[in-house]
Amino acid sequence: xxxxxxxxxxxxxxxxxxxxxxxxxxxxxxxxxxxxxxxxxxxxxxxxxxxxxxxxxxxxxxxxxxxxxxxxxxxxxxxxxxxxxxxxxxxxxxxxxxxxxxxxxxxxxxxxxxxxxxxxxxxxxxxxxxxxxxxxxxxxxxxxxxxxxxxxxxxxxxxxxxxxxxxxxxxxxxxxxxxxxxxxxxxxxxxxxxxxxxxxxxxxxxxxxxxxxxxxxxxxxxxxxxxxxxxxxxxxxxxxxxxxxxxxxxxxxxxxxxxxxxxxxxxxxxxxxxxxxxxxxxxxxxxxxxxxxxxxxxxxxxxxx
Length: 305
Hints:
By secondary structure, the chain is α+β, with helices and mostly antiparallel strands. It has eight helices and six strands.
């Protein structure tokens, strides 16, 4: 028996999707509580030194020049190479003093004939960046609720944001599970996924609104079963478009992960996880949540009349 996505009854099994989603959310919260996140220097404190050269840079040379600048190479947290090995990104856990930065600039410039880029993040700045990242996600969510409520109805906005928060939580939990470094690229990826998932969810909701408008033509009120049929039909009508879109974007993100530099590998991975979870929430969570909330308003209307 073959699976046909345009014929499958998505609404019928909504309780199973909700149970799976709740289980995933609980596991994610437990992961974050007990395992935490591997925060990069963008959110803690540390120093990043970017060394560029006309020739390929060797790791042994990098460690040697760091030692020459008076810094113990053991303090190096990681070295990532890009641009065919002509760019080295060296990170340190500790914060450098101005004298150390000045000495390092002179030593590296003398070695590679190019001035390095050195940036430090103090613990206070790291906390401020983390706080601003949380504000960015919350403000984005609030803006989405207002926009979707204005364009559709508040229930559409609430369902959309709950699905988006689920997507963001799944990405964060994945990074917690495998202790992948969380940096500013990660925040960019989460915000990108939020924007992508909103677009995907709104396409389905647009079709729900259109089909519901036809069913309620002439002031007719629909029952819950009719509403469920409308939601299921709307998902069936948009499912092929959603699958094709997400597969195309996943291929792009996968190419970026495989062929991109080490510095943006976390960004690419966050995109891949977010795209898969975003497609799941758009098809199995957002519209089903709206159906349940809308169904309760139908029940209240019936009792009031």
